[in-house]
Amino acid sequence: MTHYRNAQGPYFGEFGGRFVPESLIAALDQLDTEWEAAKKDPAFVEELDDLLRNYAGRPSLLTEAPRFSQYAGGAKIYLKREDLNHTGSHKINNVLGQALLTKRLGKTRIIAETGAGQHGVAAATAAAMFGLDCTIYMGAVDIERQALNVARMRLLGAEVVSVASGSRTLKDAINEAFRDWVANVVETNYIFGTAAGPHPFPGMVRDLQKVIGEESRAQILEQTGKLPDAVVACVGGGSNAIGMFEAFLDDESVALYGVEAYGEGLQTDRHAATMNRGRTGVLHGAKTKLLQDADGQTIESHSISAGLDYSGVGPAHSWLQSIGRVEYRGATDADTMTAMRLLSQSEGIIPAIESAHALAGAIDLGRELGPDATIIVSLSGRGDKDMETAMNYFKLGDASRVVGGEL
Known about the structure:
Mean pLDDT: 94
Shape: globular
Radius of gyration: 20 Å
Family: Belongs to the TrpB family.
Pathway: Amino-acid biosynthesis; L-tryptophan biosynthesis; L-tryptophan from chorismate: step 5/5
Largest sheet: 6 strands, mixed
EC number: 4.2.1.20
Subunit structure: Tetramer of two alpha and two beta chains.
C-alpha cells in the first residue's frame, strides 16, 4: 500500500520549494520552525481545537442532498458543510491557526491577500479577536465583484488595499502582499490564504485544513457504514481541496477529483485551467503548474468565481496529478451557475460560486458512476457574497425574468 498522507515539504515530488528574495528567508525559517514546534505543543493544539469548536463552530455537518442527487444520475451526494463555519467558509480553519501562530511569534500585525474575500474576512475576523493590526490586499476587479466582503473586512477593522496592477485580481494581490512583508517583516506575519506559496505555507495550510477531510471520513462511516466511492472539491489555489483529500489519500478505493475553473471554455483563452492547460514553472515562491505563454510569462486567468481566478495552484496538487492519485477536471462558468441554481432550488442551500464548480463536477461524475455510488462534495463556502454576480447572471432584479420554474 502506498502512503501519501502527511507529505512533508519543502518539496512534493518535483514541486514546491522556496523561491523568494533573501530578505524573506529568515522570516520563512522562523515560521517553519515555530509551526513544527507549535503543532507538537499540547497547549497550542488544545487552544486551536477550542477555537475551532467554540468559535468557528466545528465539526461542520455532513448533509445528504437527495433532491440534488437526482441530477447526478441518482448517485448519493453528501455535502461537507464548510459554509456553516463562522465567517461562512473553510478559510477560518487556516486563519485561526496562523493567527495563533502570529501571537506565538510575538508579532503584532498580519497581512493577507484575498480573491473572493472569504480569506480576507476570516483574517480580519481573527485579527479583531486577537487584537492584531490587519491589512488585506485585494485586486481592484475583485473589490468590485465582492463589495459585500470588502465592507465586512472594513467593519471588522481591517485596512483593505486595492491593487490596480496586472489583471487586478488575486495573483496581483499576492504580489503586493509579498512586497509589504519584505518591508515590514519584523512586526508582520503574512497569513497566506491557500496551499500555495513558498515552504512552509503549502504544508502548513494543508495541516490546518485537513480537519475537513478527517471529519468527513468519520461522518460518512457513521452515516453509511462505508467509505465513499468519490470525493470532489473545487480547486483554485487548492486549500479546501487539499484539506478534503488528505484523509482519503491512502484509501485506494476512494477516487479523488479536483474541479478547476474552465471559465468560458478551454477552446478560449478565458479560463483558469492550471492543471489541464498549465506547465511547470515558478509562481509566488513555489515550483508548480501555472498558466504561461511560450516565453514563460504568466498568463492572466479568468473565472466567474473570484476565488478560482488564479494562474497557479498549490504544489501538492501538481504532485498528486503527476502521480495519478487525483484527477483534475473542470466546469465552465455556465455549468457552474446551473449547478448553483440547482442546489439552491433543490436543497435550499445557496453555495459559493467556487463550491458550485465542485457541484457541477459531481453531477457529471454521478452520471458516470451510476446510482449505487456515494460521493462527498466539499461545500467550501456559502453564496451570500456572490449574490450580486448571481443577480446579474440570472437577471434576478428583472421582474419579467423567471429563473426558477419547474426543476
